[in-house]
């Protein structure tokens, strides 16, 4: 496969996954911000949304205080935010057009249809001139459905060849980064210093986080206990059965990188890096993670994941 084609497929999947994550972050933050004042902490919820999306620095350069309307606009329709939902869907469609013949009809319809619908939402948002929660809810549902439609059509209709493998690599690299960031932000932005871990505010925040990654039902199935931070960390980091966990993402990443290496007859630094990260996750325990410090563990993971993305690009995607 041409590096150019692999690159477009890889980033197409990443942008679709990123748009879905941003929609989930906005929804979760709305739930937190809507808590009664006795549970609402110090009002850092919208700052946390910016931090977990990686958009905080860009927001501070162009906007004022992190208030609901300005943050939602920046994460959804802002043209000057490279990672806004609007730009993610547009960039996904741009990448899809470049490799139209490598996509199935269903995959192209999912992306192209989403881009057309995005333009309708964008026009409606510009015309309205005010913040409409109900319309925002419709938009976020549309974004999540787009991700499901694209992911489902890719999984059900693509040949299991290098095009499929590069597409899935992009998805799981992005998903691992997103899960790690939302875990880290929970500990370092949301919970005020004067609030106890395990308190009422902590409980509601963790519940919102679980909902954001579609893991609340899974949590109760696996642990059958009240929401506890160390069990949530266990679920989202070390449980292979949980599709968005870090170890599940790397189980897929190593599988697809090995498939590419076998097909091309050569392994390289990306395979070595992926297996090293997977081995650390397999050997880790929740007690050890909290002993090291969740923030320190997640920071190291995000750096390793970024490094893997760079190695994949250098090894396969440069043209």
Question: Nutshell version of this structure?
Answer:
It contains 15 helices and no strands. By secondary structure, it is an all-alpha fold.
Description:
This protein is an all-alpha fold. 76% of the residues lie in helices and 0% in strands. The protein is built from 15 helices and no strands. It has helices spanning 3-33, 45-53, 56-62, 68-76, 85-98, 105-128, 133-157, 162-190, 200-212, 216-223, 229-238, 246-264, 269-283, 286-292, 294-317. The longest helix has 31 residues, at 3-33. It is globular and about 55 Å long. 44% of the residues are buried. Residues 190-199 have low confidence and may be disordered.
Keywords:
319 residues, mainly alpha, 15 helices
Oligomerization: single chain
Number of helices: 15
Number of strands: 0
Helix share, percent: over 70%
Mean pLDDT: 89
**Secondary-structure-derived class:** mainly alpha
Strand-and-helix sequence, N→C? HHHHHHHHHHHHHHH
How far the N terminus sits from the C terminus, by CA atoms, comes to 12 Å
Beta-strand residue percentage: under 5%
- Which residue ranges are poorly predicted, with pLDDT under 50 across at least 5 consecutive positions? 190-199
Tell me the overall shape.
globular
Q: Please describe the biggest sheet, giving its number of strands, its sense, and whether it closes into a barrel.
A: none
Radius of gyration from the CA trace? 20 Å
